[in-house]
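Appendix B.2, paired examples.
Example (i):
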Amino acid sequence: MKIITILTGDRMIWKGVIIEESLFDKSILNIVKIVKTRKTTLEKESERGTLTFLYFELNDKRKDEFVNKALLVIKDRFYLHLCRDERMVVVYKNKEFDFSSNELNKLNQARDYGLSVGILREQMLFEELIKNPYG
C-alpha cells in the first residue's frame, strides 16, 4: 500500500506585506493574492504621507518568481517581506536576505543593510514579523 502525504493549511503559503507605493512596477501584484489592505503612515516618517499596505499570500511554487521580480521593482528606501514556517525573506532593491527565526546573525545582517539604505530601525522589527507576517 502506498501512502501519500498531502500538505494542507498554510504550510505551503508565504505571507507578507508590500507597500504599494514602494513599487516601480505594480504588475508584480498579479503574482500574489491580496488578502487585506490598510492605509497608514510609516513609523516616524509621517512626512512620506499615507501609504497603502498590501497584506498578501503567495503559493510556494511562485515564490522564486516573485522574489526575483521584487528585487527589480522595489524602490530605494523600502523593503518587502514574506514569511512561512519560521522562515523570512526580506527583499530590498537588488538585495535579498533569507533566514530562519534562529539565525540571528543573518536577521541582523538584513536589518543592518536596511539601515545602510536609509530605513529606520523601528520599521524593521523582523523578530516580530517572522512570527506574525502581517504585524
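Example (ii):
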Amino acid sequence: MDLHERSKPCAWISATALLVLLSGCNAQSKTPSQPQPPEVAILKVKREAVPVSIELPGRTNAYLVAQVRARVDGIVLKREFKEGSDVNAGQRLYKIDPAPYIAALNSAQATLANAEAAVKAATAQAERYNILVGGNAVSKQEYDNAIATRDQAVANVASGKAAVQTARINLGYTDVLSPITGRSGISVVTEGAYVQASAATLMTTVQQIDPIYVDLNQSSVEGLQLRRAVASGRIKLTGPGEATVTLQLEDGTQYPETGKLQFTDITVDQTTGSVTIRAIFSNPRYVLLPGMYVRARIDEGVNENAMLVPQVAVTHNPLGEATALVVGANGKAAVRTIQATRTLGDKWVVEGGLNDGEQLIVSGVQKVQPSMQVRTVAWQPPQQPAQETQQPGAQPSAPSASSGPQNRIARSSPAQ
C-alpha cells in the first residue's frame, strides 16, 4: 500500500469530526435566548364600604364613688361590714359612740319644753291685758310689753325645735350609713379610733363598678380629621349613641361585653393636646376594676369609597410614601403612590392612588421592576394547610420547591 492510500482513513475521520462539530453549533443556535417574563399574582381591587374605627388607650373608672367620712366627733364602737364585700344603700357600716349626742338631744328637748311653757304663760297674760287695756286698767305700754313677751316665747319655741332637730340629726350621724349600693373598700379606721367631723375623717370608700366607665384619650387632630370627613360626606356615621366600643384588656385578651359611647369632652387638654371620650360597659362579673389600663376600639362610621389591599402588596419608597405595583393594559408593571391611611386586620385601607378594577400585584413583587413585562395569575388568600394522613410505614414526603408564598398562587393561563 502506498502513502496516498494510507492517508485516506485519516481524511475521512477529520471530515466526520467537522460534521459533528457543525451539527452541535446548529443545535446551540436553536436554543431560545429570551427569558420568560416573571409570573406575578394579581388581585383586582374594588371600592367597598370599610368601617372607620380608631384604637385608643384609656383607663377604667367607677360608675359611682362614695367616700364615707365622719360627720360627727366620737369613738368608733363597731364596724359592721366586711372589707371588699357588697353593701346596699342605707346599710350601716360603722357605729360611733352616741352617748354625748343622746344627752344633747335630751337637753334640746328640755329647752323646747321650757319654751313651750313660757309661750302659754305669755299668751294668757297678753289676752288678759287686752281686756284690761280697754278699761284703762293697765297702760298701753304694759300691754305692748305683754305682746312682745308672748312673741319672744313663740320664737324661743321655734329655736328649741331647731335645736332638737339638730341634736337628732347629729345622733343619727353616729350610725354611719352607705350612701350608695356598691362594693366596699379598705376600712381606714378601726374600732376604738377617734374620728372628727371638722377633719372629715375618711372611714372607707364604696364604689359601684357595674356598669363601669372607660375614659379614653383621643388627640384633637384625629378628632378634627374625623369631623371634616363626616362634613364632606366621605364618612357616614352610624348614628348618635350607636357607635360600639370593644376593649382589649391588659393581658391582651378581648373583653366579652360591648360598650357604648356616652359623650366626648369639648375641652382640649393643653398639656397633652387630647380630649376625653367616655364609654360605658356592663361589668356583671367585676372583671373590670377601677384604674385598669385598657385599649378600646371605636367603630365611628363607614367609608364607602375605600379599598382593602393586602399588606404584602404595599411597600414604601425612600420618602416614606406608600407604593404598590399594578399591571397595565399592555401587560407591563407600573408603580402607584397610594394613600394608605391605616390597617384593618391584615389589609391596608387605601383611600387614593388606585382605580377601581386595577390589577394589583400581590405576590412576586420582589421579582418585578416598573415597565417590565409580566405574566399574571389569580391571587388567593393564604389558607391553613390541611394536615395530611400517612399510611403506616410511609416515608414523609420532601418539601416541594414550590412551597412557600408562591404556593398560594392559583395557576391559570397567562394574561394576553
